[in-house]
Amino acid sequence: MHTTPPVGVEPAPVPTASSDQPVHQTTATDALCEAASAAAARDISPSLYNTDLAPTKRQGRRWTGYSIFTLWANDVHSLGNYAFAVGLFSLGLGGWQILTALAIGAVLLFVLLSFSGFMGQKTGVPFPVMSRISFGIRGAQLASLLRGAVAVAWFGIQTFLASVVLRVMLVAMVPSLHDLDTNSILGLSTLGWISFVGLWIVQLVIVSFGMEMIRKYEAFAGPVILVTMVLLAVWVFIEARGSIQWTGIRGLEGGEMWRTIFAGGALWVSIYGTFVLNFCDFTRSAVSKKSIVRGNFWGIPINMLLFGAIVVVLAGGQYKINGTIIETPSDIVQSIPNTLFLVLACLAILILTIAVNLMANFVAPVYALTNLFPKRLNFRRAAWVSGTIGLVILPWNLYNNPLVIVYFLGGLGALLGPLFGVVMADYWLLRRGKVNVPELYSEDPAGAYFYKRGVNPRAIIALVPAAVLAILVAFVPAFEAAAPFAWFFGAGVGALSYYVIADRRQHFEDVDGEAIAVASTH
Prior knowledge:
single chain, mainly alpha, Hydantoin permease, 20 helices, membrane, Pur-cyt_permease, transmembrane helix, Uracil/uridine/allantoin_perm, transmembrane
């Protein structure tokens, strides 16, 4: 145990009578909380704490409503999301039905992400530390590594998909480069390797500058992709001579139509099952709860309706043009006859994919690795380790293997619902938001989050049956009709199980982490 404040933590200034600022009149409760926080600061463990895992100071936080909005402006318009939404058109949903499915998902996500975001704004801690509340200071490794494992694999896959777009752009600019795209080295052509490694390096450089650089990049990329996708939809609408396929191509009606609509909304939530878990990685630097609500409102329901309108125009317009159903906007981009416009569209998609990768697939494994080795890894070193793993797994081979995507990554993804259920039930239903932040970094056996040898067995017991149920519903053919709702089954059973078996004899204290906090720009 340390007997001195941690390195990098500055004591709060003490107001004096000569100060120009009014002296805050503390209540007896405030004084007790400050004393408890200061005392706990002397007991933090170096195996649980470093400047990247530490809570952020409230003063100086920079993530505004616009910052959060641009997260969604980028992520919602990802190529994967377009492929999913266009898939709803392929299933037979028409324009208003697709918009209804996305609206259902958007409302649910707005609520889930707001509650998840509030946790980060209050405590100032990243997801691996937040997991210590319910799973214990050591048990939290399970939650953060599950989230990180899914993310690091998808980081490599998304980088590969972006490299394909880069190859198209390079060949369009320099046709002779096509000769470098005909061989195969470990499953990728020479031009493919150049494109992949180039994008890999760009992302690592951005992440090396920390969360503040990610915030700035997201703020830059958000407007770029919004404008690009709107212009692409306008171009398709003009090419289709103002006519789009508004009704479903399979003519779904009645119960089958509504089941498909609600299944689409449920799957839309499942896609964001990763984000609702670790949204606190971003909101730990949010300036207020209002900024989270404002950013989520414009970024989720409003932005998702715009996204839905673009999907309807792109898919319905292209169907009217030649009777084909596109898979992603990349299919349309490759058909642009003007080389300059094709290059600009490719650049925009590259900017988008990098933005999505940084926020959805890079931050989580970086914090997971930092949490695993806090003495040896900081944010920058963990970023390079995570990125290297994303390279050596040769992600294009994973992407080309349906069994890996469906059963391995899909199976890991199915576990995120139960994780979310346990974490949220513990924080909101059991503790009612009361957290002793300094004790999240303490190895004291009497600490609030030590439980049994650092693991909360009740959380594990609640997690296991919920995880089994989620996997069965997701993959067993007999439950095919319920498969789109697997995330909800897992989250619901996990939350209910934990709430029933949780230890209600605990005494919950609400102590902030300002005594051990660091600047949010670290």
